[in-house]
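Researcher: Structure prediction, please.
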Amino acid sequence: MKMRMLSMILVLCLPAVAQVTPASGVTYDWPAVTTTAQLGSYLHQIDSGITSGSSNFSIDFTVTGTAPSACTFRVEGTSDPTAWTGLDVTAPAADPLPCTTSNLISIAYKPARYIRIYLVTWTAGDATTKVIFHYTRGSM
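Model: Predicted structure follows.
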C-alpha cells in the first residue's frame, strides 16, 4: 500500500511532457509566434514511417499584418523527445531559415517521430505582426 502511494506521488510530481498529436494525424497548426525558443508543443507524428526510414511532410508559415523585422527558424526532429536534430535544409548546422514572408518547405525521407519548430530569432514589426506555422503530413 505504501509503495503504491509512493508510486502515485512520483508520477504526479514528474513534469508534464509538452507533446501534441494532430487530431487528424495529417495536419496541425502551431500557435502564433511570440518569442524565440521552441514554438508551442512538439508534434508527435503517428505512423511517421520511422520504421521504414522515411518521414515526408511539409511546413508552411503564414505571415499576416506587418512583416516581422526579424524571424528565423529551424525544423527539428527526433525519435525520442530529447536529442533534437535539424531536418530542414539548414541541417546539420547552417544558418536558420527566414520566416519574414509566407512560404512552404517540404521535408522528405527524414525519419522523425517527433517534430518541432525552433525559433532562432524573432522581432515583431508591430502589434499586427502574426506568423503561424502549419504542418501537413504527406506521401510526397
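Model: The chain has one domain: 18-137.
Researcher: Thanks, that helps.
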